[in-house]
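Ex. 9. Protein: Stage II sporulation protein M.
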Amino acid sequence: MLNRIVLFFVFLGIFSASFAIGAEVQVSEEESAIILEELESLIDEIDAVGIFGHNTLLALPMFIPGFGIAWGAFAAFSTGMAFSVLQDANPMLANIPSLTILFMSPFGLMEIAAYSIAMSRSYMIVHKMIKRMPIRPDLRVIGLEVAILVGLLLAGGFLEYYFIENLPTDMPQI
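Predicted C-alpha cells for Stage II sporulation protein M:
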C-alpha cells in the first residue's frame, strides 16, 4: 500500500513537471492564433458532460502499460502549452504560475489525481510484466481505480463547467 501511495505522488510530480515545462514553451503568433481559435470554439460548444468525456478519453489510455506514462506526460505538456498561449493572450493570467491553476482549482486537483492514478497503474503493470508476476489478481483493483478516475473526472467536469459559466462578464476575453 505504501508503494502505491509513493508511486501516485511520483506520477503526480511527473505530470506536474510536464505541465510546467509545457507552460514555459513560447508558441509562434500563427500557432497561438490557431490554438486560441480552437480553444474558443471548444469552450463555446462544451458542457459538463463534454468536459467529462474529453478528460476521460484523455485519461483512459494512461492505464495502458508503458504507453500510459508517455501519453500522460504528453497530455500534461500539451495542456501546459495551451495555458502558455492563454497567458500570452490574457494579461490577467500573465503573473499566475502555471502550477497554481493545477493545484488551486478543485477541478484541477481532481484531474491531476485521476491522471496520476492511471499513470502510476501503467507503471505498476509494466513492473509486474517485467518481473513475470501475474496481473490477474490486480484486475479488481484496476477496475476500482477506473471507477475512481471516472468519478473524479465526472465531478471535475461539472465543477469546471460551473466555473466557466460563472466567469465575470467584464473579464477580458481570450
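Check your answer against this statement. The chain has a mean pLDDT of 92.
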